[in-house]
Amino acid sequence: MVKTFMVSKCIGRNVEISKDHPRYRSLVIRERMGELMERGVVARTGLIAHGRGEAFDYLIGERTIPCAARAEEAAAAALLEAKRPVITINGNAAALAAKELVDLAILAGAKVEVNLFHRTDERVERVCNYVEEVSGAKVLGRDPDAILPGIASDRAKCCSEGIFTADLVLIPLEDGDRAEALVKAGKKVIAIDLNPLSRTAVVAHISIVDEVTRAVPNIITHAARLKNDKNARRAILKSYDNHAALQGARDAICAHMSEGAK
Questions:
Q1: Range of the domain at 160
Q2: H runs (alpha helix) in 109-241
Q3: pLDDT, tens digit, for every residue of 141-190?
Q4: For residue 260, is it within any domain?
Q5: 99 and 228 in one domain?
Q6: Are residue 14 and residue 110 in the same domain, yes or no?
Q7: Which DSSP category does 3 fall into?
């Protein structure tokens, strides 16, 4: 859930958003993204990516659709079943759900690694500092000592005790190149991606077509319930069908658009 706050206090502008505004939640998130861009946590082009995701959120009705709910349950089960799970965070994910992602990592026994496309040492430090500031936990990413094959960008840089040796990686708001590289490296991939047509969603083993501030708390709820129930976790994963989940998301978009046209 997005916490209520006076936007003017966050960004130093005389901007106030009424809770009665029909786009209240969306506008609060936008202001947070803008503030954190100014602080160097979110990349300038990250605002474009956020807007694209917001458009897809409109198409699914700004809600957790049933196929996403099943994917979130499967994601919780997979994280708990993994031996070396890692949750990666980029600038947008940090801005939207840093504390919640770290809370999930703690619950699932996962490590957290900051991994950026627009990478400079200064920005890595800013994102790591921000995540640690809001979560109170230490994260990996400042000193990458390994290279993930198949990526033609700085995203190939990773930590040997994190992404490089992980058996499962959760990648919120990421890109197709890295998702493909992680799968080719033999890792299970969970993706949170509002676009069910993206390469990230298509190549991932579990694709959650949901907005990250809804998805992560949902995964946490499932993980808490499944923490001590191995049989339930394995039954969930055995029955989960990611192709059906993606088709369900596409069907939900078509249905919502059809309803709006009436």
A1: 66-255
A2: 121-135, 176-184, 199-203, 212-226, 230-239
A3: 999 999 999 888 888 999 999 999 999 999 998 678 899 999 999 999 99
A4: no
A5: yes
A6: no
A7: P
